[in-house]
Specification:
- The protein is α/β, with parallel strands linked by helices and 196 residues long.
- The chain has a single domain, classed as Rossmann fold (3-Layer(aba) Sandwich), CATH 3.40.50.2020.
- Helix content is 30%, strand content 28%.
- It is built from 6 helices and 8 strands; from the N terminus they run αββααβαβββαββα.
- The chain has helices at residues 4-13, 36-40, 43-57, 71-83, 122-133, 176-179, and strands at residues 17-23, 29-34, 64-68, 86-93, 96-99, 110-118, 137-146, 158-163.
- The strands form 2 sheets. A 6-stranded mixed β-sheet has the order 5-4-3-6-7-8. The chain has a two-stranded antiparallel ribbon with strand order 1-2.
- The longest helix is centred in the N-terminal third of the chain and has 15 residues, at 43-57.
């Protein structure tokens, strides 16, 4: 099993653990940002970071791995490959998460939802709702980084590779040292107001 220290080392080594002032896809502000895509571009790290997630859920009778786009797609595909199950993703269209491209959940299918980084769990909750509306069963949730240090509970069967308590702030409650740094929004979620 890979340790928290080893995971952090991989993120630092690949330049994927960023420091500054970031607006997360949740809308919260943070001095730290995990850019998983920078890690997952390397097959050896993709395999290594997804292996514990796949192993944890291997005996849970998973039929499908589903992920929210964009961040969870690569992780979900690799976890599904390692588990040898079908993989699909949901994507945001006009501000709403939907299964498109012919992807569907059949009634009673057991679905593992996989994401790269979770702060509030908003995207994962949206995919969970889609699964349940289709008559599927949310059999578990897995992700690489849990920025809430375990505070965000999405379902009973939940697994994260790295749990960290990363400070996050509402926009109107920024500490002075963070407010002094220009904010960047590196996430992939497009809010309805910015959809063209």
């Amino acid at each position: 099993m890979i340790t928290d220290k080893q995971v952090l080392h991989i993120f630092r080594e690949t330049g994927a653990l960023l420091e500054g002032h970031f607006i997360l896809s949740s809308g919260l502000h943070s001095p730290t940002y995990f850019q998983c895509a920078k890690v997952l571009q390397y097959p050896k790290y993709l395999t290594k970071l997804c292996k514990p997630i796949a192993a944890y859920f291997m005996d849970k009778r998973i039929d499908v791995v589903a992920s929210p786009a964009l961040g969870g797609v690569v992780v979900g595909t690799e976890v599904g490959r390692q588990m040898n199950v079908r993989t699909i993703f949901a994507e945001r269209t006009e501000g709403e998460m939907k299964f498109r491209r012919g992807f569907e959940i059949k009634p009673h299918e057991r679905v593992l939802i996989v994401e790269d980084v979770v702060t509030t769990g908003k995207s994962v909750r949206e995919v969970m709702r889609l699964v349940e509306e289709a008559g599927g069963i949310v059999a578990g949730v897995g992700f690489i980084v849990d920025r809430s240090n375990g505070k965000v509970r999405l379902c009973e069967e939940q697994f994260s590779l790295l749990k960290m308590n990363v400070e996050v702030y509402e926009a109107d409650k920024l500490p002075p040292e963070l407010a002094a740094i220009p904010a960047v929004k590196p996430g992939s979620r497009v809010e309805p107001s910015s959809v063209q």
